[in-house]
Every structure is written in C-alpha cells, then in structure tokens.
Amino acid sequence: MYWEVNSADSKKEIKTLSKQLNVCNTTASLLITRDIKSFEDAKTFFRPSLDHLHDPFLMKDMGKAVKRILEAISNDEKILIYGDYDVDGTSSVALVCKFLRNNTTNQVSTYIPDRYDEGYGISYQSIDYAADNEFSLVIALDCGIKAVDKISYANNKNIDYIICDHHKPESVIPDAIAVLNPLRGDCSYPFKYLCGCGIGFKLIQALDITQDDWESNIENYLDLVAVAIGADLVPLIGENRTLCYFGLKVINLSPTIGLKAIIRGINKPEITLSEVSFYIAPRINSAGRIKHGNNAVELLLEENFDNAISFSKEIDNFNLQRRGLDQLITSQALKQIESNEEQKDFTTVVFKKDWHKGVIGIVASRLIEKYYRPTLVFTKSNDVLAASARSVKGYDVYNAIESCKEHLIQFGGHKYAAGLTLKPENYLAFKTSFEKHVKKTIKKEMLTPTITVEEKIQFSEITPKFFRILKQFAPFGPSNKQPVFWSDNLNDTGYCKTVGEEGKHLKLSLRQDNSDIFKAIAFGLGDKLSLVKNKAQFKAAFNIDENNWNGVKSVQLKLLDIKSND
User: Fold this and answer.
1) Residue 371's domain is classified under what CATH number?
2) Counting Cβ atoms within 10 Å, is residue 113 exposed (0-12), middle (13-18) or buried (19+)?
3) Angle at 233 between CA 558 and CA 65, to 5 degrees
C-alpha cells in the first residue's frame, strides 16, 4: 500500500495560525489542509451554526416550487412524494412527507419505485399511478434530472412535477414546474454538494420561511438529512457539515421514532457518522435491495415505537439476507475473474444473469478490495442487463461510462459510483470498449491502493488537549476525512496478538522510545504479525480514536498500515 503525504507546506502559515488559535503546529497544519487559514475560518469550522445555512431561495426555481406547493395546499390537491429506493431517496421522501403532513390537511402520500420492475428514477408506472389516483402534484426527490421524456408524458396527463435532484444534469433538463438542482448551469446557489435529502430540506426550509403559522423547529428533521449524508458520501464541508453536525445532535437526543428503533441495537454512548454509515444506512438500504423501499419509508414515518420496533426487526432480517447474498456473489465474481484470466486487466467487468440486483453495488466495492481498479457488476433485469459501477481514488468512472454510451440504454451517477443498463447483445462490445478507455486514461498510480497520511506525529504529542481538539474535527467524511497520522520507531511491548475470525486483526500495545504506552487495534492486518513481533522497530499509519469500555474512556490508535522502519 502506498502512503501519499498531504500536509501543509507553508511553515509561515502554520506558525501564524498556531499562534492565532493557541494550538500546536500539527493541529494548525491539519486545519490548513482543510482550507481553514484564519481565526474566522476556524470559528465557522469548530462552531457550526444554523445561521450558516444559505437562503434556500438562492436556488434556481425555489420560488416556483414553493408557489406551486402552497397552491396545491390551498386547493386541497392530493400530493405525491416520490423518491429513489436508496437511503438518500427514502430519507428524502420521509422528510418532505412528514413535514407536509405535520403542517397541512392535504392528502400526502408516498411512492418508491420497485428496484426490479421499475428501476431507478421516475417511472412511467408511477406517472400512471398518479393519474389513476388523482394526484395533481408530484415532488420527486433524489431523482428526475434526466427524466425529460417522463416529465413530458406527465405533462400530457396534467400532472405537475417538482424535481429535487443532486445528480449531474445533461444539456436539456425536464420541463417540470420547478427543477431544484444546484448543479444546474444556471443555478447560482453557493453550495453545490447537497445530497437529495439536503435539497429536500432546503425545500421545507423555504416553505417554513414563507409560512409564519407553520412549525418553526425544522432542525428536528435534520436526523434524516444526517443519515442521507452519511449514506450518500457527499463532501463533509460547508453546508453539509452544518446539516450533518446538527443532524447528529438530533439523532443522539430526540431521533425520529423509526431511527430510534434502529439505533436501539447500537451499544455506544454516542452515535457518530461512522455508526450512521456502517450500521444505520445499510439497514435502511436493505429494504430496497431485498424487498421494497416502501418498507424503509414506512419505518421512517412510523409514530408508534412498538410498531417501529417490529418494522426495524424486519429490516434487520433484510440486512442479514443482504450480507449472505453479498458474500455468495462476491465469491462467484472472483472465480469468474480467475476463470477468464482477467486478473491483470485495467478493469473488472463481470456478469451473471441470476445475481441479485440489490447487492451488485456492494459486490463491486468488495471486488475493488481484491482487484483495485474501476469495477462494474452486471446482472439481468427483465430484458436488459443492469450494472453498478464503482471506482478507485482519482478516477472518474462516470466519464468512462459516458465514453461508451453508444452501447448503452441509459446511465447516471457520480465520479465514483454509477449505474447503467444495456441490451444483452451489447455487453461484450461495452466490456471491450470500457477496458480500452480505462487503459488509455487511467494513471498507473491510481491502480495502487493509497493511504493519504497528513502528519508525522510523536507519541508525546498525543496529549489530552490535542485529542480534545481533534475530536472537534468531526463529523468525518469525504473532503474532511478523519486525520491519518504516521509514526516511526515503534515497538510492541510484547502483548501483540491476532484476534478475530482466522486471526485477521491485530491487537497491540505500542511505545515509541520512552513514551507512554498506547493501545492499538489493526483491522485486516493480521498478516503483519511477524513484522511487529520480530523486535525490530516499525512505522504505522493510524487514526487516533477513543475507546469507551464500561464507561472508561481512553485513547486508542486504529492502525491502517504497518511497514518496516527503513
């Protein structure tokens, strides 16, 4: 594994900021690499405030969206809240639906498309459903930016759409009543990285501003936004940091009943974004993967805790099924790569007609752990083949897929994750074209797993004050990763041992020269045992975490890689 160093270069900047904030040089350097270079920047970063949120009416079409919703409320129209079947989509639907139900007497209903029968985005079936059930306004969340033909179809049926999407638009946008998307070329909204639920929140924020007699505590809805942010991996900077910071407070103090039911199984004194990403989000996602996204929305809208517990147990079961499928399909895909002798290709593209569509994205991520390169996993979906794509650090898989679009029916997504469909007869041509494009455009260093380390640190610098400040860098996520430090001249004090299934992990007690001893855990580094126990000094890259055991808190190092000292 390659260690890429990303630390502040300017000693003058570090010294100046260190003096302004009364912090050590290491802390100042960490801030500067996050583009925090003044006292005011640091104040905004360390002390988020809801006052930092932008005016929602800066978003193109927000005024039109609010006007149409208020018109629907005034005319007692039926409103349908529509969203994708993943965490961002289902959280968005729950948020907007709950807000409107709490503030209006209109019939507000929800619709999540079936992953298998309808696929991603606005479906013709859903438009027909809206027409048949006399819904005159549909608010589509986390989807719709490419639904030009679908919105035209809806317009012919006199159904108005408000689209709230954060995916990359094409040159033509749908002819909807309003299209809320900060990525629109004609949108001057100052923050471009909201998730779908974040845009849904901006919509209810705008409604709240215009209606004095509606509930004013819209921050109570931010738990759902924090869950969506944690699941959708949007940058944890600017407005997202503020939304997530206060959303986590809601999760820990007074979460939505449905989230409270999910959280009951987390045995931790505080829910961080890590628990959201690795415990809460997979469970919500499993509903859409294994059965239907409606199950997730039903849980998130539930007001009775006993009912929510029942729904949550059902979702726990879906998640167990998802794990089993994930392991099975990953194993089959790895065998397919070996059978086809594709271990040294620049891409992974695999297909089996009976692979479960709900887990192929997870499988793509698993395959990258073995073969570090852009990866697509295909399965059969009705009469077409559908794929989930995942990429490696620095490589834009969306652009690579777009370069092969002549073979595709449709595609969409982001730099690191995308989805696509194609006709079965075009699979091999696409696979060849995709491999050719990636081979030509990917840099050699992108094919090696990389850890970005920020600061070399001496164990003597890891003081209580330093750790207190470090904790305030959270919440961690893309563009504000948990800082990775490195130290050399390390020794294990003799207590290092393998732990976990098949000895996959290491548990250590580390000292640097004559420093205090620090407990450490190294997940997935069981094969480094001999390097640690040979009595030679070594170096390690690590996060600095807090371990809470029976109410006793202590600093613990989480090792990410171990290398010999030279």
Assistant:
1) 3.10.310.30
2) buried
3) 155
| 403 and 419, same domain (yes or no) | yes
With helix as H, strand as E and coil as C, how does 393-457 read?
Answer: CCCCHHHHHHCCHHHCCEEEECCCEEEEEECHHHHHHHHHHHHHHHHHHCCHHHHCCEEEECEEC
228 with 83, same domain: the answer is yes
Q: Please, which residues have CB within 8 angstroms of residue 119's CB and are 6 or more apart in sequence?
A: 113, 381, 386, 421
Sign (positive/negative) of CA torsion 330, 331, 336, 338? Answer: positive
- Write down the H helix ranges in 47-161: 62-74, 87-103, 124-132, 148-156
pLDDT in tens, 1-17: 899 999 888 899 999 99
Q: Taking Cα atoms as reference points, which of 221, 225, 238 lies closest to residue 281?
A: 225
Assess whether 361 and 424 both reside in one domain.
yes
Tens-digit pLDDT profile for residues 84-115: 999 999 999 999 999 999 999 899 999 999 98
Contact 540, 504 (CB under 8 A): no
Cis before 475? omega within 30: yes
Rounded distance, CA 46 to CA 40, Å? Answer: 10
- Token reading at 98: 């709950």
* Residue 271 contacts residue 252 (beta carbons within 8 Å): yes
Q: Are residues 443 and 535 in the same domain?
A: no
- Summarised one tens digit per residue, pLDDT across range 151-163 is 999 999 999 999 9
3-state secondary structure (DSSP) of residue 491 = strand
Confidence of residue 373 (pLDDT cuts 50, 70, 90): very high
Give me 239's structure tokens. Answer: 């407005």
Q: Give the whole-angstrom CA distance, residue 365 versus residue 417.
A: 10
User: Any residues with CB less than 8 A from the CB of 206 and at least 6 apart, and which?
Assistant: 56, 57, 62, 65, 66
